[in-house]
Design brief:
Oligomer: single chain
Distance between the termini: 47 Å
Shape: globular
């Protein structure tokens, strides 16, 4: 609402009333800010649209971006002068470095991603007061980049009025009513200017320490001016001439809305800021020292960032070369649900799915940003980001080779280099027959290549070479190598635990113990020129050598901190048949492959040691509530199985380099004995037969992800043989209590299902599940078979195993549960009577961390990422 006095009287009276009204509103707004700051709240989004004029006074609206704060000391010179302060220090209630606010009213520290305090609100108040006085925004520009440059570098034009007559705002002299005669944008503030001019410009100081330190002091200063005590005697100042337009008045007097639309608007603004900075970097003069700006991107609603399918890691996200767009995969926390490829432009609110990219993995960009390459259904494909169906370029090894289809790279000459069966192949962007580029060096015990990236010359490329596998296929050693299209030989650049990426800023980025390192690298001489510098901590990584970061060629970095799937905290919880929680076992930790003793009194489980990145076997006495460590080797010991009498525990371990099978007395008093060793197989123990004569295990053979199910006799020559062969997924084999059948999960139909097969003869086989199933588990009396659906629902099936032929009844759902992600052997066990289920569940809500985007990431080099 506009004061009706502003529509009355002569020009001189009209101007004076208008100025009084502006001061009146300014005093009320400053008072509202002072009240909020006294309560420990900063607004962070003060603007005309969030100020409402009512009959009872001015109201400050929309605290959707407000933040709880605590007092901080004022500048030393302010205290020395006897001043009080309303300055505040923000608590960590939102992501550090996140940009909050509306661009035209944002203080410099907000644009730099620094913490906001009460002085940030005072800067925005100065912008509002300036706009009330002039009818124009304090900082304008034709693009977001120019607005940001004005805020960071320039002062606004002085206050320009429409009429003389009030010594509080001008001293008799008035320039032209337009801005032609106004001082230049970069004009310095005059200490002899009008009182209101000085108030506004002090609000708009670039350095928070140079602003008003308290909204209460600012309010008092405006009162002093309004009462006529602030008339100046020096250089003529400039009066004010316009209130906000009727359109602005209408906006300002709307009722407050919910916080969500403003939050979404702020998210959209972040994208605009990103692109603005990228554009401004090459156009703004003079160039000033830049700071890194951070913000976060969350997955679309009802999705999760996705990195693996069926236990196989599929790559997460990729920045376009120009840093304007982010391609990422989504799915759910369920490891068996396929992926979907999306693209998010950083100047837009929403991401867009790319139709036809279901099941995609390891996205990579064409040099011009028009296309995305990816692997799906065992094929190398590309899709135009602007729209259109994907095009198949060639076979990438088939569905069975999914574990060793790990990424690609694309040069400006239209050559794509991609990974298939662990080796590097090249192909034209138009498709055709791939040809071998390089393969892992067996002499260096390299098992596969991972995530190649072309260097600027388009001939050389970086690639990660995994040299040894540990826990769940985890890389235990590896190196970043450089290769060339002109040779099949590759050269080691440095030992590392993850893939590396080169950026045109002249650095190579890679992980060292979850710390993101940047190291100067000469792409022409292929040599490092400086030592590495840490720039971010706690970065996520997958067990096969990938790291959760991506970098553009012009200073934009994206990364994700550790959480799922690489997080460590879960817990073991007992559930009843209706899903009711009955209690916990042990403390929170990272547990895998639990196994109950035959009498149900003890539990063996793998427990992850984050310092060693390996597991040990622990035994829990469920009756006494105690636990003891069974294995102490620094190697990875996992997948325990009990002997039929509960006296021994067998398990898998890589203590001799490859995964083999060992056993040890369950009481821990004896020595560890080798059961079966072979360098040709990576063995994961599944189960031990009730009569003690056989064990069943699954394998990756020679690191080719065509899994097989093997039986090892524990008598005679102990020669293993296959009972199920050549599947891309087969696991969780369990002997029936009478030893006549083996239940397991395999993807014979294209998705995992539960099967039961006769044993030891292979005379018959039955499919038990129909809608997908994993991790079968028998009831102790053999009358019921349990399994998990692909969306983590516990199912029960009545079965008969004592007849001449296996029989299965109807499938009955028991309860839904959120299990930890994973594609490994059982995440749960069943009590002997089938009434309780001990399940490995997340210790907290399982949500992957958002993706953090850093603009001008090289600024992090100056203070080691802080």
């Amino acid at each position: 609402a506009v004061d009706p006095r502003l529509r009355e009287g002569d020009d001189k009276r009209r101007t004076a009333l208008q100025l009084d009204t502006i001061l009146e509103y300014g005093i009320e707004i400053a008072g509202a800010l002072a009240a909020a700051h006294r309560l420990g709240i900063i607004h962070r989004d003060l603007k005309p649209q969030n100020i409402m004029l009512t009959k009872s006074g001015t109201k400050l609206l929309d605290f959707g971006l407000a933040k709880s704060v605590a007092p901080v000391p004022p500048p030393a010179n302010y205290l020395a002068a006897g001043g009080d302060t309303g300055a505040t220090k923000a608590e960590s209630l939102t992501a550090q470095g996140a940009i909050m606010g509306t661009l035209h009213y944002m203080a410099p520290e907000q644009l730099e991603g620094k913490p906001a305090d009460a002085r940030t609100d005072i800067f925005a108040f100065g912008c509002v007061l300036y706009e009330m006085a002039t009818g124009k925004r304090a900082f304008e520009g034709e693009s977001s980049a120019q607005v940001m440059a004005a805020i960071m570098q320039n002062d606004p034009p002085p206050l320009v009025g429409a009429g003389p007559g009030d010594p509080r705002y001008c001293n008799g002299a008035l320039p032209s009513s337009d801005l032609a005669g106004a001082p230049p944008v970069n004009a310095k503030r005059s200490p002899q200017g009008s009182p209101l001019q000085r108030v506004v410009m002090k609000c708009l100081a670039k350095d928070p320490d140079e602003r008003w330190q308290s909204a209460a002091d600012l309010r008092d200063e405006l009162k002093w001016i309004k009462e006529g005590e602030g008339a100046g005697t020096g250089t003529p100042g400039y009066a004010m001439g316009a209130l906000p337009s009727r359109e602005q008045e209408g906006t300002a007097s709307r009722a407050p809305t919910k916080a969500l639309p403003w939050v979404l608007a702020a998210v959209g603004l972040v994208g605009c800021v990103v692109l603005a900075i990228l554009a401004a970097r090459n156009t703004l003069q003079p160039k000033t020292e830049e700071s890194a700006i951070r913000f976060s991107i969350s997955p679309p609603e009802n999705t999760s960032f996705h990195y693996y399918t069926g236990g196989t890691y599929t790559g997460g996200f990729s920045l376009s070369p120009d840093g304007h767009r982010l391609a990422f995969l989504t799915g759910t926390l369920n490891p068996w649900v396929g992926t979907q490829l999306w693209v998010r432009s950083l100047d837009e609110l929403a991401a867009k799915p790319l139709p036809g990219t279901e099941g995609a993995s390891y996205p990579f960009w064409s040099p011009d940003g028009r296309y995305l390459g990816f692997i799906a259904d065992g094929k190398l494909k590309k899709v135009e980001v602007a729209g259109g169906p994907p095009q198949t370029l060639c076979d990438a090894g088939g569905v069975a080779a999914v574990l060793t289809q790990q990424g690609g790279t694309w040069n400006r000459e239209g050559v794509i280099v991609f990974v298939s069966h662990g080796s590097l192949y090249r192909i034209s962007e138009a498709g055709g027959a791939p040809t071998l580029v390089a393969e892992p060096d067996a002499a260096r015990q390299e098992t596969y290549y991972y995530l190649p990236q072309f260097l600027p010359d388009g001939r050389h490329f970086l690639v990660f070479a995994a040299s040894r596998l540990g826990m769940a296929g985890a890389v235990r050693g590896g190196s970043i190598k450089v290769g060339s299209l002109d040779s099949k030989r590759t050269k080691v650049l440095l030992q590392a635990g993850s893939s590396g990426m080169y950026t045109a800023t002249g650095y190579m980025l890679y992980l060292r113990d979850a710390i993101l390192m940047a190291r100067r690298f000469d792409a022409k001489s292929l040599r490092f020129t400086e030592e590495a510098v840490p720039i971010a901590e706690n970065i996520g990584f997958d067990p096969v050598g990938g790291a959760y970061f991506s970098v553009s060629q012009n200073g934009v970095l994206a990364y994700q901190t550790r959480g799922y799937p690489s997080g460590a905290n879960n817990q073991m919880v007992w559930f009843g048949r209706k899903g009711e929680k009955l209690g916990n076992v042990g403390q929170t930790g990272s547990y895998t492959n639990p196994a109950l003793s035959p009498d149900g009194a003890k539990l063996a489980v793998g427990l992850f040691d984050p310092k060693l990145n390996t597991r040990d076997i622990w035994v829990y006495d469920l009756k006494r509530g105690t636990s003891s460590r069974l294995t102490f080797n620094p190697a990875d010991d996992f997948a325990p199985a009990w002997s039929h009498d509960g006296s021994r525990i067998m398990f898998s371990s890589d203590r001799k380099g490859q995964r083999d099978i060992y056993q040890k007395p369950a009481n821990g008093l004896g020595t560890t004995e080798s059961v079966f060793e072979s360098k040709q197989q990576r063995k994961s123990l599944n189960d031990w037969s009730p009569d003690g004569r056989y064990v069943v295990f699954s394998t990756f053979e020679n690191d080719i992800p065509s899994r097989s199910l093997w039986v090892l006799p524990l008598f005679g020559e102990r020669t293993p043989y296959t009972i199920v062969q050549g599947r891309s997924y087969i696991d969780s084999a369990q002997f029936s209590p009478n030893g006549r059948y083996v239940a397991y999960s395999a993807d014979e139909t294209g998705r995992p299902e539960i099967y039961v097969q006769t044993f030891p003869e292979r005379g018959g086989k039955w499919q038990v599940s129909t809608g997908g199933g994993v991790e079968p588990m028998w009831r102790h009396d053999g009358k019921e078979l349990f399994y998990l659906t692909l969306d983590n629902k516990v199912m029960a099936v009545d079965v008969k195993t004592d007849l001449s032929q296996f029989e299965a009844g109807a499938q009955k759902p028991l309860f839904q549960v959120q299990l930890v992600p994973g594609g490994w052997r059982n995440r749960y066990v069943v009590s002997p009577d089938g009434q309780r289920f001990l399940m490995v569940v997340p210790a907290s809500e399982a949500k992957p961390a958002p993706i953090t985007v850093v603009v001008n990431w090289t600024a992090l080099l100056k203070n080691n990422g802080k």
